[in-house]
Design a protein that fits this description.
Layout: H1 20-27, H2 36-46, E1 51-56, H3 62-67, E2 72-75, E3 83-89, E4 99-113, E5 116-123, E6 126-131, H4 144-158, E7 164-168, E8 171-174, H5 175-182, H6 193-208, H7 210-216, E9 221-227, H8 234-246, E10 254-259, H9 263-276, E11 279-283, H10 295-303, E12 311-317, H11 325-328, E13 336-339, H12 345-358, H13 372-378, E14 394-405, E15 410-417, E16 427-433, E17 450-451, E18 461-462, H14 468-471, E19 486-490
Parallel strand pairs: 7-10, 9-12, 9-13, 10-11, 11-12
Antiparallel strand pairs: 1-6, 2-4, 3-4, 4-5, 5-6, 7-8, 14-15, 14-19, 15-16, 17-18
Helix pairs in contact: 6-8, 9-10, 12-13
Length: 491
């Protein structure tokens, strides 16, 4: 066999260096679910002198930042197209109006912030920010202007100014709850004065006592429980606590937990609380949070090796007897329990006086101060949800706010639902016909009925004796037709 001739590998020389990224882009440019690489390549090809930065929308959302008034985003439909869904979004609350809105999948914007101008593309959850490079910056590097914008948005997103962190299977910031807390001052809370002072003291002293805890060598953490029937002031007292802590020289934030049904939810709650400490951690309806599924994990988070310094837990429950003994009877977790009972006579009078002042400017409502004590006596056993302490009691008290009879006997009946312990009211307008001789004050017990016929009948059938003012010591001088009618409805 003849010897093979030696050969030489001749490399083809090229003025263009190998670009592996081109092969990478080509190999990943088939129709796939993630097109980020293709979009990035297309934008760099169209803007070779610009820096293109890719940012996931959930990380730093530029449009949310602009919608909050922090920047300006102008939609550009002249140089590119737009893809969006158009649909109706219902009202957040019954009685309000819904409206039409867009869900945008692809759009181009001219974005202005702090004197800097950017081009922004939003494409299915991704954002592409185009910015000319500053001196010394490379097109494949970072843009200092873009980085400053992203850092500002990131800090704004995690800031707790004018919001309350709420956990309902995930963390979210609630401006609505923050606004509600601003109105919840102790002066507007109808509660035993001793209880108010105790609750204010326990919260303020805790956050002022870090050095005391350290000197004693005990963890700087604490838990208290608010319990009692629904509607007796637990929630409004928590909001008043939150309000007071936010007004301190060094404001204390609140984390409000509504739902955390699984162990990993409990982990998320305490991780955020440790990051925000010192803080108030509110556990609403704790019996729904600490369940057989989450019990052990919750106790480990409270008592475990991780540092919970600066966390004051406030738990609320309507059913203290249903709580795990590890919650209700373990001092190292929740060392104090506060009962919120049905309001007493004095507190009910304060409720009546509160609403009397609130309605003072309504010309259609005549609510003299001397009616507050008798109405409060009528409401014994009631609280804000109109539930009596016994099923043999009454369900609601409805007080007529105005009864003005004309010569023909036609009257307009305005019913004011006076909810003892509840900070709201309802006004309903009904037309009835009353004989001019009918007195306006009647006592109704749960064995009797009050039948008010409609205008068509031409008369009213009122079955009620005796007069309420003679039975309940109404102030003298309330002669018919005084604008008050009290109805007891059977529970």
């Amino acid at each position: 066999m003849a010897d093979m001739e030696p050969f030489t590998l001749v490399e083809e020389k090229s003025d263009h260096p190998i670009r592996l990224f081109d092969d990478f882009a080509d190999l990943t440019s088939a129709k796939t679910a993630d097109h980020d690489v293709q979009y990035l390549v297309a934008l760099r090809h169209a803007n070779p002198e610009m820096i293109v930065t890719s940012v996931p929308s959930p990380n730093c959302n530029l449009l949310t930042f602009a919608n909050a008034g922090m920047a300006i985003a102008e939609l550009d439909t002249q140089s590119d197209s737009v893809s969006k869904w158009r649909g109706y979004v219902g009202p957040r609350k019954r009685g309000q109006q819904g409206g039409l809105t867009d869900v945008i999948f692809f759009a181009k914007y001219h974005y202005t912030w702090s004197g800097e101008h950017f081009v922004l593309y939003t494409v299915q959850g991704m954002q592409y920010i185009i910015k000319e490079p500053a001196e010394g910056e490379h097109v494949l590097g970072h843009s200092s202007a873009t980085d400053t914008l992203l850092a500002t948005i990131g800090k704004w997103q995690v800031a707790d100014e004018n919001v309350v962190w709420v956990y309902d299977n995930y963390w979210m910031k609630s401006r609505e709850l923050w606004n509600s807390v601003q109105k919840a001052e102790w002066a507007n809370v109808i509660l035993d004065e001793g209880m108010k002072k105790a609750l204010t003291s326990v919260s303020e002293k805790f956050f002022e006592s870090k050095e005391v805890y350290e000197d004693l060598g005990v963890p700087w953490k604490r838990g208290i429980i608010f319990y009692g029937p629904p509607g007796n002031g637990k929630t409004i007292s928590i909001k008043a606590l939150m309000h007071g802590l936010l007004k301190q020289k060094n404001p204390i934030p609140t984390l409000y937990v509504k739902s955390a049904p699984n162990p990993y939810h409990i982990r998320n709650v305490f991780s955020q609380a440790r990051q925000q400490s010192p803080c108030l951690l509110v556990l609403e309806d704790i019996e729904t949070i600490v369940t057989p599924l989450t019990r052990s994990y919750f106790f480990n988070e409270v008592d475990g090796l991780e540092n919970n310094d600066g966390i004051l837990m406030v738990a609320s429950t309507n059913y203290l007897d249903r709580l795990d003994p590890g919650l209700a009877k373990r001092p190292s977790r929740f060392d104090r329990k506060y009962l919120f009972p049905a309001p007493n006579q004095h507190e009910r009078e304060l409720y009546c006086e509160f609403w009397r002042k609130k309605l003072a400017k309504r010309s259609s409502v005549d609510f003299p101060a001397k009616l507050c004590p008798p109405i409060a006596r009528l409401a014994d056993g009631f609280h804000s949800l109109h539930r009596p302490r016994s099923n043999t009691g009454f369900r609601k008290i409805r007080c007529k706010a105005e009864l003005s009879a004309s010569a023909s006997g036609t009257a307009t009946l305005f019913l004011l639902s006076l909810a003892v312990g509840l900070f709201h009211y309802e006004i309903a307008s009904l037309d009835y016909v009353f004989p001019s001789c009918i007195h306006s004050l009647y006592y109704m017990n749960h064995h009797q009925r009050l039948n008010l016929s409609s205008r068509a009948t031409g008369c009213a059938n009122i079955k009620a004796t005796p007069r309420i003012d003679t039975l309940l010591n109404f102030p003298a001088g309330l002669e018919a037709p005084h604008p008050l009618l009290v109805l007891f409805c059977e529970f």
